[in-house]
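Hi there,

I know you've been waiting on this one. I reran it after we fixed the sequence typo, so this is the corrected version. Both the input and the resulting structure follow.
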Amino acid sequence: MLKQYFKQAWQLIKQNKLFSSIYVAGTALGISMVMVLAILNHIKTANIYPEYNRNRMMYAQTISMIPMDTARFKYTNSGSLSFKAARLLFMPLKTPEKISVMRSGSNFVSLPNDDNLLNVKSRFVDTNYWDIFNFHFLSGKPFSDADFQSGLQVAVITVSLAKEIFSSTDVVGQYLEYGFKPYRIAGVVKDVSYLMNETYARIWIPYTCIKDYDKEWPERGGMIGSVHAVYLLVHSPSDFEAIRAEVNENVRRYNAQATDWKADLMGQPDIQSVKIHRLWANEGPDMRKIQIQNWLVIFLLLLVPALNLSGMNSTRMERRLGEMGVRKAFGASRSKLINQILTENLLLTGIGGLSGLILSYLILFFTRNWILDIGTQYSGSLPEGTTVDFSATMLFNGKIFLIVLLVCLVMNILSALIPVYRSLRKQITDSIYIKYN
């Protein structure tokens, strides 16, 4: 019976090609817009290589220093954390499983005594960084704790950089120059997508190689510096509040002995869903407002096409009242008529949903170089040698797609069932009269 319903529905779709095309296009547009937003959020928050532990991570990136003597210092100063701030406020924490400090930069890479220079994105990290983020090593391994403590000039590079520099991936133990200084290659890892904000680079180096990396500047208590981020890996998300309490206690102790400047982390450390909305160094995100705005946008993106399609559906069903009357006259039951309408809408919405999913991928593909910058503090050009690629785990979020499809299906079905219900309540003679008048 269900197979027969689908055959009938398909014949009706072919008979009403214009209506069916508009219906499918409207459903596809609504689903594609919401899917683009859902995929972008998925890329920023889901556990994706090599940031597989996002659901167990907390982040701190900035600090605001407030003057205690407002007559002497007129303004609050904000900026990136310094190594001193990381050492005083985060390193002593007992609850996290791992704590890592990272600094980012870029410089020229080449073979020794070679004029062919490549400007590459780099990250200066410690050994805990390799435990927090799960890189896939194709050869070699991370630099050791002894290398890190000694400040030896060692590096981990991506497989694409190894091929570009050496024309080979078997390069462990060989040397390249970074910033015109020689570095021994300790390991080669699978490339990281440019979309991974905390891990994308082409070379990773111990931050102990940086001269005066832990130098304390006298201004603002030495708490503002050049640390890009402090990463906290927790045993369980249930530890988040305990870690915040520990951090707040460390801030309180620092401020209790401060003489000129008090520290304010503005709610940090953040979980991943909050961190992606922290745009400014001196202001934390209003997550309640952001969530309301996001839901409002999704609601409008679904509601506008759904209302248009509902109007079309209602007009179409009004024209079919006569048909319903004839079928009732020949013995069709209410359940058969309702099942027929449900099948038609299911087929149309299914085609529209699949088209919307494909359209969302096309939108992301053709806008991949800039669409991730929407809502960010600033955008810049892609680093040299970088392309934006999406993996399968980034693109497909089945749960969100099914929810969006279900919402469209329900709204479209309701728009068809209301006229059907009205027609079923009419006398057969009235419905047939509508058909012929």
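Quick highlight: The chain has a mean pLDDT of 83.

Best,
R. S.
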